[in-house]
Amino acid sequence: MLDVTRPLPRHELPGARDEARTAPRVLAAVVALLAVLGVHATWRYFVATARGQRFDELAFEGAEHGQGRLWVLAEPVLDVVSVAFVVAGVGTAVVVALVRRRWLLAVQVAVLVAGSNVTTQVAKHWFYERPDLLPGWNGPNTLPSGHTTVAASVSAAVLVAVPRAWRPAVAVVGAAWTGAMGVSTLVGQWHRPSDVVAALLVVLAWGAALCALTGRSSLDLPTAPGASMATPGSSVVAGVMLVGGAVAAVLAAVALADVSTEAGRVPFEGDVTAYGGGVGGVLAVTALVFALLLLLRQATARPQR
């Protein structure tokens, strides 16, 4: 009796060609490059210019409004991040890949998490600086956010490791968890919005690069001869995330434009507007990152036939 719960060996798949498709992998490589440029552009505007710093600082100051109540929710989220959490997250992704007999993928997901977090620390402490462009001293560079990188990279690793049918649900959970982490760093005044956005783009760069390097051993296989590889749920989930992200991005853009019209005023004004815009920006980029990773993983993991 045929066991349809497991992928069939390649030699049992009539006419199957377990070759990775070129076009999706090229697209993934382009997305990875754009994400790298996005990290630098985020630093260039929000850290290296007075106007960008002003918006970030306003959002930072705006977090004081309602902080007491919000901190009750934010503190437990931030406390989850630890070495044990990273090990557990990476271990889960690696075990899933090994159970699926995707040996190279098991190595890749570990590299994804390690590479993302090392990149964040190197960029924060050795590559980028924070010039004092506003009145007073505003501290050392904090871009990208380490906590957000941990949450996003672990979520991305699980997303690319799980079977095809599970990925839409994992993308939603990963985006929700990462978004909560990013917003919590704002609530606690641990980071500014640009720090979180840059961290998300770092993970997108590594995740898209992994998809671009998808090889034969990491491809999805049908559970039965002739079974469809189509996953319409992925398109629906990604579409909903992109629409929601677009709405949040519009709110962030409106807040940025509104605050920019007040440039140069001291003391600062519009901190609540900037805070709301910063939250909107974080949620928008979170939705974009996980929608793209879901679509890229599904496309690059689908074998050519």
Automatic annotation (TrEMBL):
In this chain the Phosphatidic acid phosphatase type 2/haloperoxidase domain maps to 105-211
InterPro entries referenced in this protein's UniProt entry, alphabetically: PAP2/HPO, PAP2/HPO_sf
SUPFAM superfamilies per the UniProt record, alphabetical: Acid phosphatase/Vanadium-dependent haloperoxidase (SSF48317)
Transmembrane regions listed in the UniProt entry? 26-46, 80-99, 104-123, 143-162, 169-190, 196-215, 236-257, 277-296
Q: Which domain of life is it from?
A: Bacteria
Assigned keywords, A-Z? Membrane, Transmembrane, Transmembrane helix
Give the protein name, as stated in the record.
Answer: Phosphoesterase PA-phosphatase
